[in-house]
Amino acid sequence: KGLLDPDFYLNGMITAGPGTLHFGTHFTYSLEKSKLDSDSNRNQASGGWVLIPFAGYEVHTGPHLFGGRLAYELIKGDRKFSDSSGTSEVDYTETGGEELTTTFFYEYQMETVTLGTSLEVVAAKETEIEANGLTGNRHDASTRETLNFYAPMQTMPNLPILPHLAYFRSPPLDPSPDSSPASSLLLSCARS
């Protein structure tokens, strides 16, 4: 419930060599604290703000399109949270956790369908939390990977369909040395 953080983008592109250089910045700002109420309902706000510059390069040769993109959370403000799910309300602040996102993609374009794949790797710094004057480590530095397969199809005029298969791999929730990474598979089909 509630509003999502507003997103602001500034984008540009330049022809460079055989391809195109895309660059810009992405800024989000939360209008309110992130809140969890006594019924475990959470609002949509992040409770903070972040500035993410990015750059990418793509090359289009015949039916092939390939490239990469790099984005970094250059400035990530503190995130404010309010948790009322327990016996008393706790306000806490989360700091750190900046992420570096690297994405590589390849697409093969045919007349009515495009076959595509991408690999996204997100490296996140350690996150700390402060609540009631106490500070601690919330999340260790970690890496998440996502492998995507997609095939947007133009089945009828004005009715594109986007089947998508994604494999996610992230650090284990349990920090013990014997725990293995968490992984999941997602299959979706949407009208774009």
Proportion of residues in β-strands: over 45%
Largest sheet data: 11 strands, antiparallel
Provide the succession of SSEs: EEEEEEEEEEEEEEEE
Extended strand count: 16
Q: Give the low-confidence spans.
A: none
Oligomer: single chain
Distance between the termini: 24 Å
Rounded to the nearest angstrom, the radius of gyration is: 20 Å
Number of helices: 0
The SS-based structural class is mainly beta
Approximately how much helix is present in the residues? under 10%
Which of globular, elongated, flat, extended, rod-shaped describes the shape?
A: globular
Mean pLDDT: 88
Description of the molecule:
It contains no helices and 16 strands. By secondary structure, it is an all-beta fold. The strands form 2 sheets. Strands 1, 2, 4, 5, 6, 9, 10, 13, 14, 15 and 16 form an 11-stranded antiparallel β-sheet that branches. Strands 3-7-8-11-12 form a 5-stranded mixed β-sheet, with no helix packed on it. It is globular and about 60 Å long. The two termini are 24 Å apart.
